[in-house]
C-alpha cells in the first residue's frame, strides 16, 4: 500500500432523521444518497465525497465502556471555525465533555471541542493551531483520549 487514507465512517443510529439533520446542520454535509425503504440509511458528504454513512439499526445509546469506536474527529482550518461550531452546538444544546475549546495537551497548539451527537457518539472538531492559550483539562494524558 503506497497510499492509504480513511474512506468513510459508518455509524449506527437510533433515529435516522434526527441524526441526518444533526450531521447536516453541524458539519454542512449534503445527503448523497438515502433509502426510502424499511432498511433506513443515509450517505452524507461534501463536494460529492462520501464522509459519513448513517445506519438506523441500533437501540439505546452509544457505549463508551465497550470495545469499538472511541471518538470521531473532524479537522477544520482554524480555531475560529471551531468556535463557530461551538456556538452552533450550544444552540442545539448538545452535551460537551469540556467547557469550550481545550488543547490536545498542556502547551499544545492544536485543540478543539469535544461533544456527543444525539445517540451519545463522542465527536471532536479541532484545529491544528490556535489553542495555545487554553488550559488542558487533563494533565499527563492527551485530552482526546479520556473524555
Automatic annotation (TrEMBL):
Domain VOC per the UniProt entry, residue ranges: 5-128
CDD domains reported in the protein's UniProt record: VOC
Annotated Gene3D superfamilies: 2,3-Dihydroxybiphenyl 1,2-Dioxygenase, domain 1 (3.10.180.10)
Entry-linked InterPro entries: Fosfomycin_Res_Enzymes (IPR051332), Glyas_Bleomycin-R_OHBP_Dase (IPR029068), Glyas_Fos-R_dOase_dom (IPR004360), Glyoxalase_1_CS (IPR018146), VOC_core (IPR037523)
Keyword tags: Metal-binding
Source domain of life: Bacteria
Protein name stated in the entry: VOC family protein
Protein species of origin: Actinomadura vinacea
Amino acid at each position: 500500500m503506497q497510499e492509504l487514507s480513511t474512506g468513510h465512517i459508518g455509524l449506527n443510529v437510533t433515529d435516522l432523521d434526527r441524526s441526518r439533520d444533526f450531521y447536516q446542520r453541524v458539519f454542512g454535509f449534503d445527503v448523497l444518497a438515502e433509502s426510502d425503504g424499511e432498511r433506513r440509511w443515509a450517505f452524507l458528504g461534501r463536494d460529492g465525497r462520501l464522509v459519513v454513512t448513517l445506519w438506523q439499526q441500533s437501540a439505546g445509546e452509544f457505549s463508551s465502556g465497550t470495545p469499538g469506536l472511541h471518538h470521531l474527529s473532524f479537522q477544520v482550518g482554524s480555531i475560529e471555525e471551531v468556535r463557530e461550531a461551538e456556538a452552533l452546538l450550544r444552540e442545539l444544546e448538545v452535551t460537551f465533555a469540556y467547557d469550550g475549546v481545550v488543547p490536545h495537551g498542556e502547551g499544545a497548539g492544536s485543540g478543539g471541542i469535544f461533544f456527543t451527537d444525539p445517540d451519545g457518539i463522542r465527536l471532536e472538531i479541532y484545529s491544528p493551531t490556535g489553542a495555545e492559550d487554553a488550559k488542558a483539562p487533563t494533565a499527563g494524558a492527551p485530552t482526546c483520549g479520556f473524555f
